[in-house]
Amino acid sequence: MGFERVELRCPRALDPHQSWTLGDVLAELDALDTTTRHAAPPTPLKQPPDWSSNGSAREKAFVMRVDDDEDDTEDEDEDGIGDGESRALVAKGARFFCNGLESSDSEDDLDGQIEPYHLMEKRTLEKSILLELEREHHLKVQEEVRSKLAALEVGHQNEIQRTISAFARLQKYAESRKEIDRRLDVHFQRRIAEVLDKHLSMVQRDHEQKSQIVERRIRDDAALEEAKRKEQAVKEEKLRQERARQEAEARQKEAAKLAAETRKTAFEAAQKEAAEKEAAEKEAAKLREAAASQSSQNSQNINAGIKVFADKYALEAESQRRALVHNQVPENIHLRKEFAKYDRQIAKSISKLMPTTDSVRARASELIKALDGQDCPRPIACCLFANKIISIVKSRNTKDKTFGNLAFACGYVMLLVANQVPDAMDYLLAEFNRVCTYTVPKHLHALNAQARNKDYYRLIGYQEENGQLESTESYLTYVVAYVKLYAAMIQTEIKGVRHPHGLAEGWKWLALFLNALPATTATACALHAFLKMAGFALHKKYGSQFLKILDVISRCFLPALKDQGNKMQSEAANNLQNYLNDKIYLQEPEGQYLVQQLLSKELFM
């Protein structure tokens, strides 16, 4: 039997490359094992003996072919390949010389399967030793390869462990760095906060120092001003004392002259006192004469077919106001040149009046300054002021919804001016009574058609233009406007300011109006205008008493007005009825509270 020399695929001094992986080494071993198992039969080391070449059929060698791929053969067997087909696959193969082999009677022979035999021929000692050495070398190489594979695997595992350990250390280092960075961040934030707090403290300290410096300057300036004022007062006191001394010296020098003229002075004083008494008696006579003329006029009016509806107290107050104006103010003052300047000044100031706080404050200051002037007598200035502010009814559009706001603004101006110039209120009331008899309150009623002439209409307040009297609608519009302005002045209240003709006078006017005046179109319009402007304030002050007044209007005044059946009277009655039904007196008039609040806070608080 022959042997085949097996050469290793690698040198005997195996030195695997360090870059090989475990998979590469295992794949190499599998390839080596497969090559060894599937390799061709080895070539015998020597020729077969001579006996194998004789022609005897008994010693003749047999040829058997074995497929290299055993797995394929097994698969084919499993697929049902028969003995005939197996014999057809036999081809040339290695020759085996079987001398002295004993046949086997086992069941394997019956199945057609041949047991493999490892047949060896007799060889020499040297060859056997050589074969043993080769086998030992082969085993040694395998052992070395296994040991190196194990070493490589251990090194690989150690490398993995080192890598894991390195990653763990790296992660731990990263976490420690994060912690250090966090601590540094907290530290830096704390430092920044401390620096910012220190900076803000410095800024605050700087502001406080500046404020102290400014306050010190203000105090110094105030002290300087006070010192100047005191110095000025001392100088004035010295001047006053000097003048007093000079006057005393002058009086001493003239003492002799004065002693000589004492009798003369006493005589002149007696004459002056007599003259004053005579003037007072004349003035009293004029007042009595005016009252008598008024009563005679009333009697004349009654005799002429005109009946006066008014309370005695209201007529006396009107007469006194008319007499005051007649005695203190000359006639046609608007046409006199010496007063034209003041007339234009007052008219210009009133024309700029608007229903705003700033406008009211500015106009009141200008008018107070004008009335306190030394060049124009106060009665004349007050008369001009009353005439101009009440004539705003003619210069503005009274049908506009904003006229109510303007009326409230005029009321505040009147109150502020009357507070500084008390005489102005008497002239305002006298002017109201002159332009509108219902502000007295007073109503002139024509008893017959003959009495309803131009003189009657002029007497009750109709305006004449180009020889023609205005229409009744226009007349009623002006009546409503004048009464609204009068009511706005009455209900005006400012904290800290005394009203000489306030809500108490408005309550008195309302009582006199309902007690003395009849229910007509003009009186209904005047009553509705008054309630619309002052009803809220009267209800706020008098409460249930005011509701009783409204009940009188509902039970007595309105039925008497509706019985007349006139279209204009019906409209006036509807206005009053709506006022009562809708309880308008509970609603604050537009433009009243805002102006009052601003004035109370800005001017007098």
Order of helices and strands: HEHHEHHHHEHHHHHHHEHEEHHHHHH
Distance between the termini: 140 Å
Beta-strand level of the residues, as a percent range?
under 5%
Question: Unreliable segments (pLDDT under 50, ≥5 consecutive)?
Answer: 10-14, 51-63, 65-119, 298-303, 594-605
Number of DSSP strand runs: 6
Biggest beta sheet summary: 2 strands, antiparallel
What would you say this structure looks like, in words?
With 605 residues, the protein is mainly alpha-helical. Helices cover 68% and strands 3% of the residues. The protein has helices at residues 22-38, 70-78, 83-88, 107-110, 125-253, 255-260, 262-303, 312-328, 340-351, 357-371, 378-390, 392-395, 403-420, 423-435, 454-460, 472-491, 503-516, 521-542, 544-562, 567-581, 592-602; strands spanning 62-63, 95-96, 306-310, 442-446, 464-465, 468-469. A two-stranded antiparallel ribbon has the order 1-2. The chain has a two-stranded antiparallel ribbon with strand order 3-4. Strands 5-6 form a two-stranded antiparallel sheet. It is elongated. The N and C termini lie far apart (140 Å). The model is unreliable at 10-14, 51-63, 65-119, 298-303 and 594-605 (pLDDT under 50).
